[in-house]
Amino acid sequence: MKKTITISLIIGIIISALAFYLAFRNVPIADLLVYIVSINYFWIFPAVLVVLISFILRVFRWQIILESAGKVSFWQAFHPLMIGFMINCILPGRVGEVARPAVLNKKENIPFSTGLATVAAERVFDVSILIILFAALLATIHIDPNIDIVFGKYHLNRETLVTVGGGTFKLLLLLIAGIIMVSFGRTRKAIISLIMSIPHLFFFAGPEFKAKIKKKVCLTLVSFVENFASGFALVRHPSKVCICIGLSVLIWGLAGFSYYLMAQGCPGIELSFTEIFAVMIIICFFIALPSVPGFWGIWEAGGVFALVLFGVSSKDAAGYTLVNHAIQMFPVIIAGLVSAMVTSVNILQVSYEKRGK
Hints:
Helix content is about 75%, strand content about 0%. By secondary structure, it is mostly helical. Helix 8 runs antiparallel to helix 9 (about 205-230).
């Protein structure tokens, strides 16, 4: 295993262990076990079914995004997507995001950098929808302004959520502006022209040094911009963008519905669908932090924090979050492993080969 991956895993373990401690420090293990036994596990079946349907919609969305690079069938997109998500669940460093375009490149001969750009495009849709829905939920759902939950040195409350959401929204706007500039021909040519003028900044250097800068820096950046643009070619087709937005709303709506279904079998989780949906969004913000594979610890910390905000006891919040986490993860792992076997993909090889030796 590479040194960077090892460091990532160590950091993730530390953060996850701390998150687990903060999430469960006030919950006796015996009480947690009693709660887990009391859950009505019948609700696993509809919850898992909804999770799988949401991933089928992800495949359709990725097919649309990939059309600029080449036509791929449902199964040609399904297997790399499930392998990528599965790898994120079992390996550190979110290497599944890299593995997915690597599998696509190996099986369908689509350039790796283009495939990676389409994965980035997916993430832009996901983050955009989540932030918009998060803002709408904060405006409509009542969260007691007096609630203040201490996680280590941090005070987490409604004000914290508003601050984080506002900052993320501003970053998203900058990202979208950058994508638009790279995706359209005129602005892309201007960006490439600026990149190719970098050697002129070293007016004091000799021609050999400038030639090296051009070859190793400028041409590499230009290649990246061109491939990135091909992955985001979707923005030049408003109808496809609208379809992807609609699919993104459905994907996250189904994801929230799976949380809600599982809550029906969990004692003490008597929240509305919109409140459960808000819990899911808060968990998504938490798992953006580094953690061990599968987001263990960070997920639980986010879930407990979010549920306590809505008046759920720490014991009930911890039990529901832990069980629901497993339900969200294991079907993806199983489906990904089946896809890896069907396509004869070496999981470790595709996870690390594009990162260099």
